[in-house]
Each structure stands twice: as C-alpha cells, then as structure tokens.
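Course assignment 3, question 2. Fill in each field.
Student: A.L.
Task: Predict the tertiary structure for the chain below.
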Amino acid sequence: MARIPDGIEERAEKLREAINRYRYLYHVEDTEEISIEALDALKHELASLEETYPALITPDSPTQRVAGKPLPGFKKVRHAISQWSFNDVFSEDELRAFHERVLKGVRAFDASASVSYSCELKIDGLKIVLTYTKGSLVTAATRGDGAVGEDVTMNVRTIESVPLTLTRPVDLIVEGEVWMGKRGLQEVNKEKKQNNEPEFANPRNAAAGSIRQLDPKVAAKRKLDTFIYDVAESSESIPDTQSEELAYLAELGFKVNKHSYVAESIDDVLSYWKRSLKEREKQDYLIDGIVVKVNARNQQNALGYTGKAPRFAVAFKFPAEQVTTIVEDIALQIGRTGILTPVAHLKPISVGGVVVSRATLHNEDQIQRLDVRVGDTVVIQRAGDVIPEVVQVVPELRPKNAKRYVFPKHVPECGGDGSVERVPGMSAWRCVAKDSAAQQRRRFQHFVGKHAFDIEGMGQKTVDLLMDEGLLTGYADIFTLTEGDLLGLEGFAELSAKNLVESIAKRKKISLDRFIIGLSIPQVGEETARDIASHFGTLEKIRRASIEELQSIDGVGGIVASSVYEWFRDKENIHALEQLLSHVAVMKGEAKAQGVLSGKTFVLTGSLPSLSREEASEMIRSRGGSVTGSVSKKTDFVVAGEEPGSKYEKAKKLNVFILDEKAFRALLGG
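Answer field:
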C-alpha cells in the first residue's frame, strides 16, 4: 500500500468537511455558496486522493454514497419502533370532530388544558425509517407493513440530503419521506422514453421505483430528496413539542420542510390548510394534504394510539383533484363470466400526477344516470386518489350530434351470434354464449391466478401466448404442456420452460375450495366456494347436489344455488370437468371450523398494520367465521385498516361494528 505523503491526509479531511458543508447548504438549506460545478470539482479531487491512497476512505466519506455491487434482493428489517399511519379526514366537520376528541382526551387528565397543533405539509412520497448509531447512518428501511420493512440503505445513502454522519454522535431513529420532484420526474421519463422503457406515472411511483432499485448506481442517477419529520427514538432528550422537534432534526443535519406552522386553534388549522391548498402547485414536490399533530409531546403521550394510528394526529387531505376531458368512445369489456362492463375511452389527461385514458362506467344504469355520450366533456376525478371515475357531464359543451348511448343487443366478441342479455334482477348485461375468446382468456387467467390454482410463472401474457399458439383451449391442456411445447415460444428458453412445467406439476393436487374457485362458476366467489367445499366435503357430492341442498348452506341464496346446479349439468362443462379430473386430484374439503366466531360474518377493508388480508381471513375462518367482500345488514364486523374506502363508509351508515387491528385481535382472543 502506497505511503500517504505529508499533508494529504489533512487535505482529504478538509475536503470531506467542506463537501459535507456545501452539500448541506445546497441540498438542505437551498443555499449555493459555491456553484454545483465547483462542488463537483471538490468531490472529484477527494475521489482521486482516495483512489490513489485507499487508506483515506472512510465509511462516511461523500465518495461512498454510491458503493458496492448490485444487490440480489432486499433484506427484511424488523422495525425497532412500530410504524404507524395517519387516519384521514376530508372535511371541516371531520377535522372539528377530531379536535373535539383530542380535547376530551386531554381534559380527562387536565380539565383546563388547551391544545395547539403543529401543521406540516403531507408530502406524497415514500416513507423511510433511518437508524443512526453514534451519529452514523446504519440502516434505512421502508415502512413495509409497519412491523417489517425492506433494507434500502445502499440506495438511501445516494440521496444527498440524507446525512451519513450527524452533527453529534447520537443514537437515533427518525422517520421521513423520500420524494422526487416534478422536474426530476421529467428528466427520468425523458431518458426512459429514449430507451423505449415504460415511463413513471407520477413522482411518487418514480421515488418508490428508484428506492427499490437493486443497483445503487441507478438510484444515484435519480434526483431523489427527503424531508424528515419525526424522531421515533433518541439517546438524547427529545424536545417537548413537535415544532421544537423539527428544529432539533434540522440541528442534527436533516432536511426539514420549512412550511410548518403552529396553530393555536382549529380555525387556525383550517386557514393553514386553505393556504397550503392554494400554494401546492408552486412546490416541486406533490402535496396531498396537511398533517395536523398535537404540538405538546406530553399531550401526545396521554392520547396514545389506536391499533393503526395515533390519536393525536390526522392527515387532513385535499379534495380529490378533478379535471375535464372528452369521451372519445364507450367500449365494452368482457369478464370471465361474460359480464359486460362499459368503459369510457378518454382523451388522455393528467389527474393528480397520473395520466388517465380510461374510466369505468360500471353498468348501463350508471350511463343513463349520468347521461354519458360519446363526444361529451366530462369531469374526471381519481376516487380516493386511485381509481379514475366519471363524476358528471358538462352538458353545455355537448356536440349537437351526440347520441344517447344504447346498450347493443349484439357484441361480436361474445362469440356465437354475439347476443347479449340483461341479467335478471341486476343492472348488468352479459354474453349469451359462454365460449368467446375474450371470456376464455379471462377464465384461464383466473384459473391459474393466486386464489385458484396459483401456478407460478403463468401470468396473463403467458396465457395469451399459449392461446394464440393453439396450445391452450381447455383447462386440461395446461397439465399436458411439456418443455418441448414451450421451447421456441417468445420469452421461453430452456430454464423458463422447465420452471413452468415444474410449477404446473406442483398444482396437480389441489384443495376442493381452490378447485371450485378456478372453475369460474357464475355468482360463486371465494368465500362461497369455501362454504360449499366445507359443507359437502367432496366434489362428487357437489356435482350431485340439488338446488335445495345447495340453498341450505348459510349464505347461499337461490340465485347462487341455481347457478351452481346448472353449471354442473351443462354438457360442455361436464366434458371439460372430466378432462381436467384426468390430470388433477382434488382433495376432500375440510369441515368448517367451529369457534368463537361461528356464525359471524366479516368484511376486511384497507391495509392492516401487521396482517395481510389473507392472514386476517384465515384467522377468522379458523375460528368459525366467514369473510365476504361487501358490506350489508347481515355483516357482523368490518375490520378496517389504512385507507379503508367505501366499505368503511357503508359500515358506518349501516351501524355495523368497525374494528381496528387491536380490537380485532382482542375479539379473536389475543
């Protein structure tokens, strides 16, 4: 190893200090004391010294932000502090109701207490948890499910606003948001377009996609930034208020959003929200609301947490963004059971950072209610900031020749003579024929999907390819595929062909409920399939069952019973079933468990902090309960997690018991 000449080590140390100082001023304080080109020159000099004298390299050197080879995958990280999400409020009334709950909780301990709030912009990015030991960055992890996240340290190290070393040797866990600016998104998408790659839909997706790159060099090229807003744990005393906590974070070297505000009343909070709504477009980052936190830490501690969120804070969301665009066509989408869903094809328009070109119109009744016509100018919004929907028509802008939409009596894609019919008692139309190519594609995709046969490596594109090549005309064909059939097809080489054949072989023995789910029997969803399987126990008994026997199952009505009965007596279905059974062994159905939840019906909505929907469903079923997909008067409990949506609202209207995860676990018995 080359000897380090006198003065070189001191020069390297001064370069590190200078670069870190100018980095902080530029990326955190938005101050440019020297040009970015000059800063790059300092970095280049340091890198040259370290290349010549590797002993000079320190873990926190600015040159080490991008280090190491691409990762094979992300390790899981269990959070030392549980990661919560905020409950949302969408109106002034809901905000005032939150305030009343806060006052009630605080005054239970101090009858004369007043409450002030720290208000902060809610950045639409990716939550990140940073852990420091003696002032040095050790781990950066995603939120994950709140209990376990992914280790993305190598990528977060590339973000210039993240200090690798704090101003003091403190042990610390902080939380914040990684984001990409609108200008950064334009640059990334410009490069993607040049490389014929799919573009990111919005800055949040770009930030999340960049942080989850396995090669840190790719993440380093993206212009990612951060705002840190919370101290989860510190070896030093944490300040007494949230506003002081933000100042404490800035003091340690973190980038903190400067647009925070302490409100002394709830009216003050509303004023800040209105100002932020007006100013949101001026910022380079996306903002979808404000976060309102009780300012005093002792009051926060007194209020505590629910199963999923703090009682002392809420996210006061901005109204769903609405835009206008033109309906260029109304097309029909055929589902696996032949149901026709009308879809509005729109002149592409950006809504909340996402380009929208289609929106579901649900059914004929919805079209008639809105009176949507081809050529109409319509108001579009992203319901819950996710699903595009047509809110209303602007009749003043309707073309003179625009005609009312009439549901066609024939749809060529339906197969046969293309006839369609309205489903009795429903607002839906369906294909009369049951063997159209469109339906077959949907059925095969469902058959191999995760809730049915769950064949790994057989996604939508593979199903379409096999159908186009004539290798897939019935369910049984899947189980006769060989490596030779697949070799030579687009996307298949020796290894991928071998893997798919092995995946198929693993599914030649299957549970009765999954088998029924895979058959795409009209009106039969996952829960109904499980109820039927546990009631009859064998496929043969189901095939012989009368309508009365089927209808005797709790939750199976006359329409469902008739649908199952008729499906198993259709000649084409019988033939397809016999062929399938020559390759697949169906296990006996397990009797429905008995337990504390016997006879109780649950609906799950939103994301639970530490349970997947499948895990929660299994916990319910193992104790004798049932899980359905929609809320009705017969629903006993709704288990609500983060972003619960319309099911939560319907449960409130019907006075159905709503449980968070903590209450749900208590109901289960721990």
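Instructor remarks: The chain is about 35% helix and 20% strand. The chain has a mean pLDDT of 85.
Grade: pending
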